Amino acid sequence: xxxxxxxxxxxxxxxxxxxxxxxxxxxxxAVEMIDLGExxxxxxxLRATLIKNLRHEGAFDTAFDVYFSNVPAPIEPDDxxxxxxxxxxxxxxxxxxxxxxxxxxxxxxxxxxxxGMDGESLRRGARQAVDQLAGMEPGxxxxxxxxxxxxxxxxxxxxxxxxxxxxLMSDEDLSxxxxxxxxxxxxARLEMLRKEIQEEIRRRLxxxxxxxxxxxxxxxxxxxxxxxxxxxxxxxxxxxxxxxxLTRKLASRLARRRKRGSGRLDFRRTVRRSLASGGVPADPxxxxxxxxxxxxxxxxxxxxxxxxxxxxxxxxxxxxxxQFSRLRSFAFVDTVDEVTDFFGPGVDFGSAVRRIxxxxxxxxxxxxxxxxxxxxxxxxxxxGQLTSRTTVLISGDARNNYRPPREAVLGDIxxxxxxxxxxxxxxxxYWDTGDSAMSHYGKHCTSIHEVRTLRQLEEFIENLTLPxxxxxxxx
Amino acid sequence: MVFDSPKAVVEAxxxxxxxxxxxxxxxVFLAERLDKPVLVEGPAGVGKTELAKAVATITGRPLIRxxxxxxxxxxxxxxxxxxxxxxxxxxxxxxHDWDSISHDIFSEEFLLARPLLEAIRSPExxxxxxxxxxxxxxxxxxxxxxxxxxxQVSIPELGTMHATTQPMVFLTxxxxxxxxxxxxxxxxxLHIDYPDxxxxxxxxxxxxxxxxxxxxxxxxxxxxxxxxLDLKKAPSVSETIDWARTLLALSVxxxxxxxxxxxxxxxxxxxxxxxxxxxxxxSSTQA
Lengths: 475, 287
Description:
heterodimer; A: alpha/beta; Rossmann fold; 6-stranded mixed sheet; disordered C terminus; B: alpha/beta; 5-stranded parallel sheet; 14 helices; 13% strand
């Protein structure tokens, strides 16, 4: 058992989850306290001791499924099909031919199990379904997504859903409202079936190819390591949850308090205090330094090449707008427009993005990025409002479609602002290749950062120090 | 009271009207066995604080609570010297030499115990609840580390005070910021999410006496449905309980769009959310 758990911990670390030595020892100690026969107890015990961040639970669940799933249990003897092979392989073409297997019977059993919320028979049904429908081929280095798809397609979930709704519907006719609730209930139950099937498939893959191999195939980057340029919609959704704490940290970084006592002498209070020491001003009092209220301006490239990343930056902007009262945001493609008002209080992210794409005037000529023109328009329109307290954050890949970069205007912006920080979602090695004009712009920025993943964004925020005066240093 | 198994925890907690799922029961069981603090994380209103209270109830221990807030310092969390009393002591006694007085005024008599020290010094075992720990600054977190790992407090003038009895510690967090690794390492981690419809229904039945089975089921389903929308603030478990009570008070037997529209403000607290949910549910009727 110990070797399985250390293997499991190795796998977690391999997937990027930080499991410290102390936590591993805690996990071992905790496992001694519990009944190893109970899978749920084991899972929750390991989870509580090894995983300290919600973002890592997905990786944990996958690894746990692989490492602690049992070898497929024998299937009931009354099923003649099951006896012949552990992994009955089914040729894709011959699907029509093998019909001895009772699909309708299986569907009925599944329907009963789902309607009665009977976990045990649901599991049995799922096992049978995988047996008959997945057509698993031993030795293939796959993660099982295709098997899952194939099983579900043959099961015809849409029909199952309709049947289930019918089965659960009480005799009297329901209002639309009740139908809606019922439909959601049914969807939740079908999700259970999908999970069961997936678990069963993974169990078989493990039996076929061993834990380490399957775990390696299934390994997905953690949320903080997903490349922002190529994130899927669901990954972006996961990120949204992680952005909140980050923006709070950024807010506190930008508003870093000055050292105590740096305020001006408060003459009145010093004299008042001196009365206690017989008129000798032994205890000088200072005015409280005013809390620094940072002004942040965000400039996002929302052109096509940046589609995924800009969605992320807009998410970030949205989250920031709840933190800073004086945040202004601008979007540009080949010209620039202010989008601050689209992120007003209480506006949800989806509708804000919709309005930006529909209403903001960010396209001037042809809808290809033009940083030069965008920056010039930005400076001529809003430059006068920049102050020595303004931090300008620019997010973009600096790919200018071979147009003149006109970087001098960025220098003017940098002179007027407290700092200009450029966040580039491309790997450092791609900068200045092709039409990227990163170094042209970079020399006018206070700092430039490669921000390809959430982790890098976190690092950037962690190490952020801003010049207190307004003397931008060149990088 | 010692639990034999997670099942015993489930039974005991259920008896205290707190319905735990497997995960919660398992972690409470481990916390008791391993003497480790539990860091409870999750959205607002899923019963994080309630859990600590329920554990206090079932174990029969007193609950000591430290509410965290921005600007909390050691004088409020750990201990403070009672300056006024110390001054009085010095003034009332002019005969003794300074040595004996200074020795005297830094004794336990002049110590004001704040929640953390109180939990350590308590003669009977307690449940210590450190609520909303994510509200304190990163620097202040360090105050907690010594207590969480060794159950002791160091006071320079007095030396180190060890716990006489082992307190059960619960920390809650709404995850508004990342807690430090050092803090997390010392704790068992428990994430509580909104309960699924079945468990929520059971919670409702336990917490709202007189609620019919049918209504409880509907309330739980509506709550799940609303949480599926993209809202500023999803309804918490306590809000669904309030809503169930409201429906009961209005003697509603069956939830329909109209009832939902009229009582939505019990579940949702932002005008934009209310409008959105109302629109969502009425449009589903027209479709």
